[in-house]
Inverse folding.
């Protein structure tokens, strides 16, 4: 009995359909072909594949495909068998393509064009490198069903709005050529668009190569007049960011009819507060653009960036962006230079580490590195000292020949007045006093305080090093070593900050460079009674405004 059961089992195994292992060529007869195809695809009993075949079977039996098209399907199927392609995923995705390509506009033409390319790919396969063909099938399903160059449930989707395109085979690669289209990048709630562009898509590389096109800022309500005109560009469609090396910005409010050359980038952003609203981005190639219509009397020279709706004026450390403000008689009232300004036309200009000079006649009030905020409608400027080393410098008044230690000043251009330590309505920590100190001031106790219990005075050492090296610019690490061979710049950091705040030096902590100011030489010489000096130093500590500088009569009260 057991022998009989074994024999029957072996017989069933030998006679059962084994399409996936044995089928080498489909029948030329359409009905037999359909039966063989069904056996080949459903042998694995996967529901997703069976559903794809059932849809194809319905189309096939309802006459959707012409006799010529059925012959083409048989030919392509045999070529796939010749490459030993399995039901999963190759034949399944091929049938998915057939199910959607005939539904496309001009379906019969698309069917022929698409198959011509697919057959060329199959003919050129070497060493069973079938991956690119599978990539092409997956792309084709997304393209014909969703107009997508790439579709993803969780990632970026690149969608085309185009009617004029064609499939070609170029350099042994499939290419879709578009003569005109709108290209959309979509992810969740965000989307971006390139309008009126053209280019080629390479499905097996997931690469779009575009020419020309236009990106507007309309999603930020800036109007259609603000847009970037694109040069040649590429998009890796698995990514949400693309960059264009050469583009031209049109922004009539700033540049009138001029277009500005630069670089451009855009990104699809999904729930990222850090970058939301900061795209599209444009940066000018030219770093000396002139803009005269930011606000009344304001003239700007520098580079131009547009990040979302925010405008930045930019420069370099050695050649900063420049803001100049003139009064109604075209007299220069203020000059400010920085690596970066934030500009809101007609509203305000903000910057950090700004070198700023307020002019009155031939004199000025100067600071080398200060936080800057100019309210354009009111013509009011606030300068405040930050916490970085160079920020702690005092203000210098050339008219009064004094250093002014003040954490904040307010300049009212239309009223010709400057307030030092202006009273604030906000509740804050205890205010620092405002100190006015003559440039010829010397106090021996201050000199000795800096020496503390050391055997040397740092002012004397810095003066000696500067004179020996023949320069006022010293390396901070080298200076630390010359103060004490055991020291590094970290050991003298607090000393350097103190010297900055007292007006002895400038200190660039990024470059670790010390600039020796005239006060070093004055103090060192005064300590040895080599020069005249005074003791003019006024300290103001009050809950009210500390002092007002009246620019009409040059008085300080």
């Amino acid at each position: 009995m057991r022998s009989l059961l074994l024999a029957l089992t072996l017989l069933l195994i030998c006679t059962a359909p084994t399409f996936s292992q044995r089928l080498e060529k489909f029948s030329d007869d359409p009905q037999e072909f359909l039966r063989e195809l069904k056996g080949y695809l459903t042998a694995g009993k996967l529901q997703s594949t069976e559903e794809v075949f059932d849809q194809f079977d319905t189309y096939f039996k309802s006459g959707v495909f012409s006799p010529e098209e059925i012959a083409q399907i048989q030919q392509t199927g045999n070529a796939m068998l010749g490459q030993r392609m399995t039901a999963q995923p190759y034949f399944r995705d091929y049938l998915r393509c057939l199910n959607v390509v005939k539904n496309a506009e001009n379906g019969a033409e698309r069917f022929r064009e698409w198959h011509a390319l697919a057959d060329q790919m199959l003919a050129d396969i070497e060493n069973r490198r079938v991956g690119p063909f599978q990539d092409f099938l997956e792309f084709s399903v997304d393209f014909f069903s969703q107009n997508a160059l790439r579709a993803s449930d969780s990632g970026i989707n690149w969608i085309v709005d185009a009617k004029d395109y064609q499939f070609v085979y170029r350099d042994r690669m499939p290419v879709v050529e578009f003569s005109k289209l709108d290209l959309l990048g979509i992810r969740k709630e965000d989307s971006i668009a390139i309008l009126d562009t053209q280019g080629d898509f390479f499905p097996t590389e997931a690469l779009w190569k575009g020419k020309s096109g236009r990106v507007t800022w309309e999603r930020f309500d800036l109007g259609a007049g603000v847009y970037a005109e694109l040069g040649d560009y590429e998009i890796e469609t698995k990514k949400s960011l693309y960059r264009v090396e050469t583009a031209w910005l049109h922004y009539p409010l700033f540049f009138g009819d001029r277009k500005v050359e630069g670089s451009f980038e855009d990104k699809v952003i999904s729930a990222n507060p850090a970058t939301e609203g900061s795209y599209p981005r444009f940066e000018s190639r030219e770093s000396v653009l002139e803009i005269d219509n930011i606000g009344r009397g304001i003239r700007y020279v520098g580079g131009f960036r547009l990040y979302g709706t925010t405008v930045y004026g930019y420069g370099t450390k050695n050649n900063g962006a420049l803001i100049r403000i003139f009064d109604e008689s075209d007299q220069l009232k203020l000059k400010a230079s920085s690596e970066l300004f934030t500009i809101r036309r007609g509203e305000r200009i903000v910057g950090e580490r700004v070198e700023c000079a307020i002019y009155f006649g031939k004199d000025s009030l100067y600071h080398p590195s200060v936080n800057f905020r100019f309210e354009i409608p009111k013509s009011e400027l606030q300068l405040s000292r930050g916490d970085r080393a160079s920020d702690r410098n005092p203000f210098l008044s050339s008219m009064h020949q004094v250093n002014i230690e003040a954490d904040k000043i307010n300049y009212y251009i239309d009223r010709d007045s400057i307030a030092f330590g202006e009273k604030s309505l906000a509740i804050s920590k205890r205010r620092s006093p405002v100190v006015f100190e003559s440039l010829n001031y010397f106090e021996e106790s201050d000199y000795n305080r800096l020496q503390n219990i050391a055997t040397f005075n740092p002012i004397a050492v810095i003066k000696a090093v500067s004179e020996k090296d023949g320069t006022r610019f010293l390396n901070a690490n080298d200076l630390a070593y010359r103060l004490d061979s055991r020291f590094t710049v970290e050991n003298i950091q607090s000393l350097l900050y103190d010297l900055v705040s007292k007006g002895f030096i400038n200190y660039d902590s990024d470059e670790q460079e010390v600039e020796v100011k005239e006060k070093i030489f004055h103090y060192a010489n005064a300590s040895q009674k080599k020069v005249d000096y005074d003791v003019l130093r006024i300290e103001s500590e009050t809950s009210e405004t500390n002092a007002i500088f009246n620019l009409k009569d040059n008085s300080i009260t």
